[in-house]
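Progress note, sequence design subtask.
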């Protein structure tokens, strides 16, 4: 997840219209996943497209590729063949990936390493929001060695935006993605981060870790602005979740772009989470 720096300046409405908070990743090197200064091959781009992900602004990073702003596709993801007959559908339901967390009921441990106390507090708050839904997938905060580890990196702005956090999708074996990266740069959350805002970002990145795509992957324009984009059908990558709305859901916790506030689960999100877990 990423934010535009202009949102913190009190500039005019005209300027603010172009600084929505987006789940995007810039090309600067980070402590956690340094970005390679090499071009992404046409073969890799085709593989990413075949998986149902956008090929706009793809970055090669250690261990894989960063796509759609805050989603890590590992080398394992890239090597996996399609295992589902589902096709991508251009509607606005909540979407999941073909990989989900397995062996339910299950408790996944989460830890925070080398980050200020407010990040640990926000992580515990985010886990509590999931646990309050009484799903078969639960989370437990541990001091070290969590199955999901929240770590920090320090990355300044690029192109007017600054990264807030990123994560990836479950493995083919059914384990959650093992890492969430949160930016400690002062221009990301300020010198005194708001715990509720941090909670909402962590809540979103945890959604990716357990298999959720961006709700508006088919058309980011209604949450991010700009031109409507839809990458079309594919054999893997976005599976609709029955019972979620057929129209745009502008309040989902998994929207590609944030409203800058403390966004949590809406009623449709809860339907999606209960359907899967």
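Output:
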């Amino acid at each position: 997840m990423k934010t535009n720096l202009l949102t913190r300046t009190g500039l005019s409405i005209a300027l603010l219209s172009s600084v929505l908070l987006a789940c995007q990743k810039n090309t600067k090197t980070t402590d956690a996943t340094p970005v390679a200064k090499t071009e992404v091959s046409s073969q890799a781009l085709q593989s990413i497209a075949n998986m149902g992900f956008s090929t706009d602004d793809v970055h090669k990073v250690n261990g894989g590729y960063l796509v759609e702003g805050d989603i890590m596709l590992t080398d394992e993801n890239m090597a996996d063949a399609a295992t589902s007959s589902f096709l991508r559908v251009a509607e606005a339901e909540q979407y999941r990936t073909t990989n989900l967390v397995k062996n339910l009921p299950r408790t996944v441990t989460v830890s925070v390493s080398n980050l200020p106390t407010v990040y640990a507090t926000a992580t515990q708050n985010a886990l509590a929001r999931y646990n309050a839904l009484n799903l078969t997938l639960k989370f437990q905060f541990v001091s070290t060695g969590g199955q999901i580890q929240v770590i920090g990196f320090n990355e300044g702005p690029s192109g007017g935006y600054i990264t807030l956090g990123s994560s990836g999708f479950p493995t083919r074996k059914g384990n959650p993605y093992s890492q969430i990266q949160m930016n400690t740069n002062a221009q990301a959350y300020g010198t005194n981060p708001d715990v509720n805002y941090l909670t909402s970002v962590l809540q979103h990145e945890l959604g990716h870790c357990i298999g959720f795509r961006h709700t508006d992957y088919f058309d980011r324009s209604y949450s991010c602005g700009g031109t409507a984009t839809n990458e079309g059908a594919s054999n893997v990558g976005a599976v609709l979740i029955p019972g979620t709305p057929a129209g745009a859901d502008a309040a989902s916790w998994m929207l590609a772009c944030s409203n800058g506030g403390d966004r949590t689960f809406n009623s449709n999100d809860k339907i999606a989470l209960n359907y899967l877990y």
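The longest strand covers residues 106-112. Work on this subtask will continue into the next period as scheduled.
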